[in-house]
Amino acid sequence: MKEIKRSYREAQARARLEALFDKATFQEWVSPLERLTSPHLASLGAPVSFDDGVVVGEGLVATKQVVAIAQEGLFNGGAVGEVHGAKIRGALLKAIEMKAQYVIFLVDSGGVRLHEANAGLIAISEIMRALFLVQEAGIPVIALVGGSCGAFGGMGIVTRLCDVVIMSEEGRMGLSGPEVIETVKGVDEFDAKDRALVWRVTGGKIRRTLNEAQILAEDSLTAFRSALVELLDQGVIGKSLSLAELQQEHAKLVQRAELDPAIRDGAQVWHAMGIEEDVPLLSVNAFNQRLEEVHHE
Amino acid sequence: MSEALHSLWARLFPQGHEITVSGDTLFGSAMTSMGAVHVLGTTQHVAVNSRIALTLAQHVMHCIEQDQDLDQPRPIVMIADTQGQELSRREELLGLNGYFAHLARCVEGARLRGHPLVTLIHGEAVSGGFLAFGLLADRIIALPQVEVRVMDLRAMSRITRIDYSRLTELAQVSPVFAPGPENYWRMGGIHEIWTETDNWAERLTEQFMVSHQDQRPLLGLERKGRLLAAPVAERVIHAASASTKA
Question: What is this structure's pTM?
Answer without folding.
Answer: 0.97
